[in-house]
Amino acid sequence: MNKPSAIIESLKSGWTMAVHAWPILTIVYFINLIIAVVFLGPISNLLSSVFENNSMAAQLVSGFDYTIIIDVINNHKEAVLLNLPLIGSSIFVYLLWSVFVAGGLVNVAYKYPEECGIVDFWSGGAYYFWRFIRLTAYVILAITLFASAAFIWPNLSSLNVLEMDNESFVLVKFYTSFAIFLLFIFLVTIYRDVSKVNIVNSDNTYINEDTTAAFRNSLDLSNLSLGLLNVFVAVVIGAMYYLMKSLLNDSWFALLIVSQVYLVIRFVYKLARIGSFVQLRKTRNNS
User: Fold this and answer.
1) Rounded CA gap, 282 and 180, in Å?
2) How far apart are CA 49 and CA 139, in angstroms?
3) Would you state the torsion angle of the CA atoms of residues 114, 118, 124, 129, taken in this order, to the nearest 10 degrees?
4) Which of 89, 108, 136, 191 could form a disulfide with 218 if both were Cys (CB 3.0 to 4.6 A apart)?
5) Domain interval for residue 229
6) Which of 197, 241, 239 is nearest to 218 (CA)?
7) CA-based diameter of the chain, in Å?
């Protein structure tokens, strides 16, 4: 089960399935685009009015300056407060849509290659929606609690930073916390994907048994190895995107095309990733 060949085949199967599911990914892409246009349009207008006829935007591009954020809050408080409900609602709607997409994609991945249709996507999104909502709540809660602990820890020192000769001690604690947080995120993403596969595989109404089993399954060498391979693929895709951006820095139209292609590839990667874990689970069930 832990043979490298089985893990590589799972990864290849995930990408093959994702390519075959291009009609589904096309629908997901355009609905995401519609959500972005509907919700980001007013927010974009707010930013345009805030940064109009001044140099604040240029200062933010050249380097972060917290005084600019304070200035925006002080001088455009009403506009910011007026758009807070819109920002909150956009995050909420996108979260619900993401959960629906996750259920649909897992269902498509689990039925491949016998079935891989648009109907499977919509039915899977609806069928697993509430179970995946609960899983998403668990994951968000875990990340929030761990992030709070990880980034509060560097400040839990009796030493006064202003009285220190250098800040190396605090920096070491900060970078250590950040590294631990990244490792935690890596493990949580594996746990999330394995939990989704368990939920679909068992089809239990309540997910407690499936999510509990996912703690143990996530630490299997096969799942860890597959998770590392997926991270490597994501890093390669991201590196290629930023390389293209740097080469096409002077052409806004080319940058627009590249950014949209990158967005599509991210959807393909998302389906390929969960598809690889589904295939690994099928291999385990058949062994």
Assistant:
1) 32
2) 37
3) 160
4) 191
5) 4-286
6) 197
7) 67
Query: CA 114, CA 65: separation in Å to the nearest integer?
Result: 55
Q: How far is CA 2 from CA 9, 87, 163, 214, 286, in A?
A: 12, 45, 53, 17, 14
DSSP string for residues in 17-31: HHHHTHHHHHHHHHH
- Three-state SS for 85? helix
| 3-state secondary structure (DSSP) of residue 224 | helix
Report yes or no: 60 and 68 within 8 Å, Cβ to Cβ. yes
Q: How many CB atoms lie within 10 A of CB 34?
A: 10
Q: What gap in Å lies between CA 198 and CA 123, rounded to an integer?
A: 18
As a whole number of angstroms, the distance between CA 162 and CA 166 comes to 9
Predicted confidence pLDDT, tens digits, the chain (287 residues): 557 788 999 999 999 999 999 999 999 999 988 888 777 666 665 555 555 545 444 444 444 444 545 555 555 555 556 566 777 788 888 899 999 999 999 999 998 887 778 999 999 999 999 999 999 999 999 999 988 887 676 555 544 545 455 566 667 777 788 888 899 999 999 999 999 999 999 999 899 999 999 998 999 999 999 999 999 999 999 999 989 888 887 777 788 888 889 989 999 999 999 999 999 998 887 76
First to last CA, the chain: 8
